[in-house]
Amino acid sequence: MLYEFLAPYAGDDLNLFSYITFRTGLALATALILSLIFGAPMIAWLRRKQGKGQPIREDGPASHMSKKGTPTMGGFLILFGISAGTLLWADLSNQYVWIVFLVTLMFGAVGFIDDYQKVTKRGTAGLSGKARLVMEFVIAGAAVYWITQYAPLAASEAVEAGLAVSMPPDKFEQSLALPFLKDFLLDLTLVGFIAFGAFVIVGAGNAVNFTDGLDGLAIGPVMIAGATFGFIAYACGTPRLANYLLLTATPGTAELAVVMGSFVGGGLGFLWYNAPPAKVFMGDTGSLALGGGLGAMAVCVKHELVLAIVGGLFLLEALSVIIQVASFKMTGKRVFLMAPIHHHFEKLGWSESTVVIRFWIIAFLLALVGLATLKLR
Q1: pLDDT tens-digit profile of 92-124?
Q2: Which of 229, 222, 212, 310 has its CA nearest to residue 267?
Q3: Can you list the positions of beta strands (E) in the chain?
């Protein structure tokens, strides 16, 4: 909104506002400051409404029993920061911004339904798995279809504005770019790409959801991944930089750096209250929203496979659950002491803070590996 108001004056004294990097910083600062200001009142309101707070798993680590009474749905605080940062400082004429923003909000809405049922029913079941997946795939499929329709238009607009040297290759919008390979796109067909993209978005949403089990565990890697993909979006959406790095250019996606700035700012504000001992949990309202937003981001910039590297920690958490369930159903035995895998290490005797900090280190190293794929071609 503010960007739209200031854009006509960008050529004069307000030229700074024409720079995506500057507005990314403003989005981060806006989301952070507003989250810090409204965090305490929002937590107090959630505590009054929820009473006993989020139900705690009876079979979980004994140390978690002390967390009874902590309110959930703290994802509202993150979404508030993301909304403020994005709507104030992003170019709202850019449809990529709306795609990522709306996927984030709609996945947050699915998470809210799940959290609401857990709180009202005083259990850990929440929304049925099948119903949740159907809702997520409908949202994700619609988003990926929107991406395939907008990508050629965004590229054409960039060429006409002199921002891109040439149009992307034919069928670029339905093709998959592979890490380490330059000038190569795998045509998945329209239906195939929509199915693949939807799987990426839904998978990312649920992987972050599995990771959210300890104070500060999920939000740290989310911010690291968000910052990494903010840079990737800026690089891929800036044709000259994309050509220098031998990346598949995705004209129009540079504006998504502003959205990722708001992700990081909102995450920092939430972490202020989620740091051990947490005063609020993000709940599915936050974890599904953040994961879905990151997944949509990866599809927009055609770095879906790189998300599996940068978000490798989320992938590990999700795989640990899949392996545990599959092993128990087939053999009656468990591979891990408890899944997701962060609980396994707690059962081994690691303190919660040790697990969180070491997992953050892993997330940071994986982000560096993901960034390395931009040049290793």
Answers
A1: 999 999 999 999 999 999 999 999 888 887 666
A2: 222
A3: 175-177, 185-187
